[in-house]
Amino acid sequence: MPVTLTALAAEPSCYSAFVNEWWCAQYVEDRRDDIVAATTEHLQITVAAVLLGLVLAFPLALVARRFPRLESLVLGVSTGLYTVPSLALLPLLVPFTGLTATTVVIGLGVYALTVLVRGFLDGLRSVPDDVVESAVGLGYGSTRLLLKVQLPLALPVLVASMRVATVSTVALTTVGTLVSYGGLGDLISHGVQRNFRAELVTAAVLCVVLALILDVILVLVQRVLTPWTRTAGR
Amino acid sequence: MKLFELTWQYLTTAASWTGEGGLLDRMGEQLLLTVTALLVGMLVGLPLALWLGHLGRGGFLAINISNIGRAIPTFALLAVLVTADWPGPAYFGPYGRAGLATLIALALFALPPLVTNAYTAVREVSADVLEAADGMGMSGLQRFWRVELPLALPLVMSGVRLALVQVWATATIAALVAGPGIGAIIVSGFARNRYSEGIGAALVVAVVALVLEVLAALVQRAVTPGRAAAPRRKTRQPVGAGV
User: Fold this and answer.
1) Core-most of A95, A129, A220, B125, by most CB within 10 Å?
2) Mutate which of A83, A173, A177 to test chain B, going by most B C-beta atoms within 10 A?
3) ipTM associated with this complex
4) Which residues 200-239 of B have a C-beta within 8 angstroms of A?
5) pLDDT in tens, A35-48
6) What CATH number has the domain bearing residue B42?
């Protein structure tokens, strides 16, 4: 018996059949490759989903603006989809896209879409009417007006909604573990099944850190793209 | 598509709905969890948020609680609660396996929309109205009960509505940590390659979610006084954390 105890004490590991610490640097070191792979997958799925949401939200928002009658329809349908829990939305996509990362990206893209359509609409609505009028007076056509005047001025509100969409998509990606494409969610899932605390806590912390980093990046991008908002307050 | 036929078959077989662990059993479990957690969240969150709004303090808390709630994955919090010594995965009365852990997670995730909306609702009562109330000689408490609370009610209710959607979704995810609810059928269907069961149960979850949302919207309309006369509120309602 004493021998076993010494052997245990000699083992530097904070995870074993006997020890189950919540935080364990040794685990991070030992499984570095797994963790990096899961984080990369998580990042890829998140970015793809938000971009998909963005690409779909833009035309939808333009249609809703062009035809006000459609606005409530677009908002209603996207809010309805938003109401469907993620764990139910993913299975409903499986008959079409199978057990693939595509399923997760489309599912999360739908949630991002809801937030982003509102972001586009609120952003475009926040552009002062007199600015639009002046641009029209200067001879701007509708496309040039949109691209050169309205979109840049809508950017602060739009980025605010992108931040909401991105942060929640990072958290939601974990649910993708249902179809085995959950990034860090797969580690959490494995951690729960094996009752391996260090694994699931590391993955959870990385999720939050990833969300924070992406949030900071978006704030910085906005600062670079809208230099006028920094001087406006003075 | 064979999968659709199988799903239809699953949903139209009486045996899928009845019996222990059947759809109805699990649905009852999940509805019970949702209602309990929402009530707990309201009892804890609403008085605090409304009072802070009345005092005009704690705006920092009200804004940040939403952001934090969004960044923490529901699944991760559930995983930590279930793996911990307490509450752990134990059965908890009618709430099923890991019932207590699920309830705690659900109530916590109900808080951000409740607190943020309730706080904002009281803060958004216009300054003119408050001045009029003070001018009439109302005490702080009277002002709160007779002026701020009634005017804040519609926005508070929209927070409750968001929280309901959020809690129902979180209750579904509880199944990923072997918890209770219809999600359990989805997860076990996928784990045992019986996709038709998983997809069928997912349909049920989605339909109930939409029904709950519509019911909540009706309640919200009912508590909104004179909505025809009121100026249209900006459509930018805070969208929930998403689950």
Assistant:
1) B125
2) A83
3) 0.88
4) 201-203, 205-206, 209-210, 213, 234-236, 239
5) 999 999 999 999 99
6) 1.10.3720.10
